Structure formats: structure tokens, C-alpha cells
């Protein structure tokens, strides 16, 4: 009954000063809204990254070489080559497909339309390794690689930019003084790490090296990197070990840091860790407003104690104990903080939806973050209400009644 009576009195006191109570709750509401919105945006970004990785394929490894981290300086580092990719394909049993890649950029034109999109020289297994599909035509074949054929496969957005609603398959477009026949169009993929996968063109790796870039070395066709598809997730470590040993032997380098192999899962963990760190940092910054809101509650409750000195003295004279007075003021501060927290959660969720609509951000409602924010705001009300409640409970009823 005492608790129920304290609740009634607390609500009555707060409703008697609606404006002051509302302004007091504002700090907590802003803090909770900020935390919920920022955590939602962070988790949404992490969800998008996870979906992109899953779309890329779970067992993909990216292979490159670097002489930066080796213990022994290599005077003339050997580039990663097409021949290295062929050796990996034939000598590494832990993989099922391989895609050597050589990147560049060239202006493509058709009629009066032009595009300066990324151009990538690839092998015939690119679709399998990168988990891509064709929407029209065919893909690059081994015969195109052997003959240095001037054929090209376009991303869906690039095809639309150059050809509009016209079917590009069979048409010829210009790349400098060279003419390329469009043989296929890729299905829409979207963005991966803020890179538009649909605004790019693919041509045979040999054509890219010999005719477009004119870039060869004494070791063969140089590559930007090699994408490899392991048989399954259990074979990823075996594939890493086998590829590293093979390339070290081929390049005559004994340092294991020379070969850089990044599994898709490792990159995913790095991206997740970065997103988690950013989300925690943003949430910590937003939590400062919760602390400020708690100070505001304590300040207002101290003012309330001063204003209600006569009421406190009268209650003590009628037999109220210190615990009763302390409980009433603690309940008032918790009500203020919890109500402000609930309002902040609602505002934060609405803010996430608005961010998704107007800022094109992917957001995700985090139930644990909502529960934590509500619990923290209630705890803040309890913690910052202790001092005013203690001050009220210690008032001398005789001194308080003299003001009547």
C-alpha cells in the first residue's frame, strides 16, 4: 500500500508541473533517441556488408603479392602473372575455380554516348568465382582468351547508359581506336563496398594485356590480383597454405609475408569489427546526453525539494518516515527518466525510418539496444534521484513547518 500511495503522490506531483516535467524528460529522450538511431544505422550498415559478402560467395579468396612486409628486400619483385594463376589452377587441389584479373579504366563509346567505367580483364571462370549471372548473351570463353578476341561483357547499368533500352548483344562499341563486340550483359548486382558492380565492363584477360594496356613483363601477363574459389569452407586454410607455398616457390621468395591471401571471411570479420567499433563510439558519444539528462533530473528534483519543503514537513509531522519521503522522490525521478527513455526510443525508431527514406541509409532496429537504453535511463533516474531524495528525507519537520 505504501508503494501504491507513493506512486499516486509522485504522479500527482509531476502532473502538477507538466511543463517542468516535460523539459526534464527532454534530455533523457534526446539521449535515448540518439543511441537508438545511431546503433540502428550501425547495425544496418553491418547487415548490408554481411549481405554483400554472402552475395560474393562464402569461400572466395583474394590473392596478391607484396614485397613491403618481407624481411629480405627484393630488388626486382616479380609481379603476379597469368601463368601463376594457371599454375594454381593445375596444382592446388583445394580449389574449384580461379579468376585472374587485371584492372584498368578506358572510355567506352557507342554513338554519341560515352562512359569512363572500370574495365577488367578476366578469365572464363569469373562468373563462377564471383557468384555472378548473365541476363543476356554469353560470357567470355577459353577460345576468346586464346585468340585475344575483342569481345566485351557489360554490367547492367553500363549497358543501359550506353544503349538505353536497346539490346546491346551483337552491337559494337569503341574503346579508343579499337572496336569490341558486346557478347553479354550481367544481371544486376548492386554495390559492394561502395563500388558499383553494375557499372563495369569485362573483357578477356589476354586482350586487356596485349591490346588495351600493352602491359606485359618477362614473366608473362601481369595481374592486379587472383580470385580463387575454395571447394568448401573446410578447405579454405588448405587452399591458403597451398597457394602461398606454390607462389613462394615460383617467385623464389622464402618469406611467407610475400604472398597476401585474404579469405572473404577474414575481410568480413574486419568489416564487422570496424562497424562495431564505429557503432560503439557513436553510441558512447550519444550516451553523453543521457548523463546530461541525469544531471538535469537531479537539478530539477533538488528545486522540487526546496519548493515542497512545507509538504515534506507536514508529511513527517503526520508520521511519514524518512524511507517514505525518500521513496516518493526516487519514484518521481525514475518516472521522469523512464518516461523520457520511452519517448526517446519512439523518436529514435522514427528517426531511423526517416534516415532510410531521405538519406538512403539502411537501418536495423536493435532490440538489445532498446532494452539496454531503457534500463540505463531508468537507472539514471534512480542514481541521480538519490541525492534529492536523501536531502528531502533529512529535512527537519519543525524547520519545514515554520514556513507554513
UniProtKB/TrEMBL annotation:
Species in which this protein is naturally found: Microcystis aeruginosa PCC 9701
Lineage, top ranks: Bacteria, Bacillati, Cyanobacteriota, Cyanophyceae, Oscillatoriophycideae
GO terms for cellular component: plasma membrane
UniProt keyword Magnesium, yes or no: no
Domain of life: Bacteria
InterPro entries (UniProt xref): ABC3_permease_C (IPR003838), MacB_PCD (IPR025857), Macrolide_Exporter_MacB (IPR050250)
Domain (MacB-like periplasmic core): residue spans on this chain: 21-245
Keywords: Cell membrane, Membrane, Transmembrane, Transmembrane helix
TM region(s), chain numbering: 21-42, 281-305, 334-359, 365-387
MF annotations from Gene Ontology: transmembrane transporter activity
Protein name as it appears in the record: Putative ABC-transporter
Similarity-based family: Belongs to the ABC-4 integral membrane protein family.
Keyword match Chaperone: no
Domain ABC3 transporter permease C-terminal residues, every copy: 284-397
Membrane topology qualifier: Multi-pass membrane protein
Amino acid at each position: 500500500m505504501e508503494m501504491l500511495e507513493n506512486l499516486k503522490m509522485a504522479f500527482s506531483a509531476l502532473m502538477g508541473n507538466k511543463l517542468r516535467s516535460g523539459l526534464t524528460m527532454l534530455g533523457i529522450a534526446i539521449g535515448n533517441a540518439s543511441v537508438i538511431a545511431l546503433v540502428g544505422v550501425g547495425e544496418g550498415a553491418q547487415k548490408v556488408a554481411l549481405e554483400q559478402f554472402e552475395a560474393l560467395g562464402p569461400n572466395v579468396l583474394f590473392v596478391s603479392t607484396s614485397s613491403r612486409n618481407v624481411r629480405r628486400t627484393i630488388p626486382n619483385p616479380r609481379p603476379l602473372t597469368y601463368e601463376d594463376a594457371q599454375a594454381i589452377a593445375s596444382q592446388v587441389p583445394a580449389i574449384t575455380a580461379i579468376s585472374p584479373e587485371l584492372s584498368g579504366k578506358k572510355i567506352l563509346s557507342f554513338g554519341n554516348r560515352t562512359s569512363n567505367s572500370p574495365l577488367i580483364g578476366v578469365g572464363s571462370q569469373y562468373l563462377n568465382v564471383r557468384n555472378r549471372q548473365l541476363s543476356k548473351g554469353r560470357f567470355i570463353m577459353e577460345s576468346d582468351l586464346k585468340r585475344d578476341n575483342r569481345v566485351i561483357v557489360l554490367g547492367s547499368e553500363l549497358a543501359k547508359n550506353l544503349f538505353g533500352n536497346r539490346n546491346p548483344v551483337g552491337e559494337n562499341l569503341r574503346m579508343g581506336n579499337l572496336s569490341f563486340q558486346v557478347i553479354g550483359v550481367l544481371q544486376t548486382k548492386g554495390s559492394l563496398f561502395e563500388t558499383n558492380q553494375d557499372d563495369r565492363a569485362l573483357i578477356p584477360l589476354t586482350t586487356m594485356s596485349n591490346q588495351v594496356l600493352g602491359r606485359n613483363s618477362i614473366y608473362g601477363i601481369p595481374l592486379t590480383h587472383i580470385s580463387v574459389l575454395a571447394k568448401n569452407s573446410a578447405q579454405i586454410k588448405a587452399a591458403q597454405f597451398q597457394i602461398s607455398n606454390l607462389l613462394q616457390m615460383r617467385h623464389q621468395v622464402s618469406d611467407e609475408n610475400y604472398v597476401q591471401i585474404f579469405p572473404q571471411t577474414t575481410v568480413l570479420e574486419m568489416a564487422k569489427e570496424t562497424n562495431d567499433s564505429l557503432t560503439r563510439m557513436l553510441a558512447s558519444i550519444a550516451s553523453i546526453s543521457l548523463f546530461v539528462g541525469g544531471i538535469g533530473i537531479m537539478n530539477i528534483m533538488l528545486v522540487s525539494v526546496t519548493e515542497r519543503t512545507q509538504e515534506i514537513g507536514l508529511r513527517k509531522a503526520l508520521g511519514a518516515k524518512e524511507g517514505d519521503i525518500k521513496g516518493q522522490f526516487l519514484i518521481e525521478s525514475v518516472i521522469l527518466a523512464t518516461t523520457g527513455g520511452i519517448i526517446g526510443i519512439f523518436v529514435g525508431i522514427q528517426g531511423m525510418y526517416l534516415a532510410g527514406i531521405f538519406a538512403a541509409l539502411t537501418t536495423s532496429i536493435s532490440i538489445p539496444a532498446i532494452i539496454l537504453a531503457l534500463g540505463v535511463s531508468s537507472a539514471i533516474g534512480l542514481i541521480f534521484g538519490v541525492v534529492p531524495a536523501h536531502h528531502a528525507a533529512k529535512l527537519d519537520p519543525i524547520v519545514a513547518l515554520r514556513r507554513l
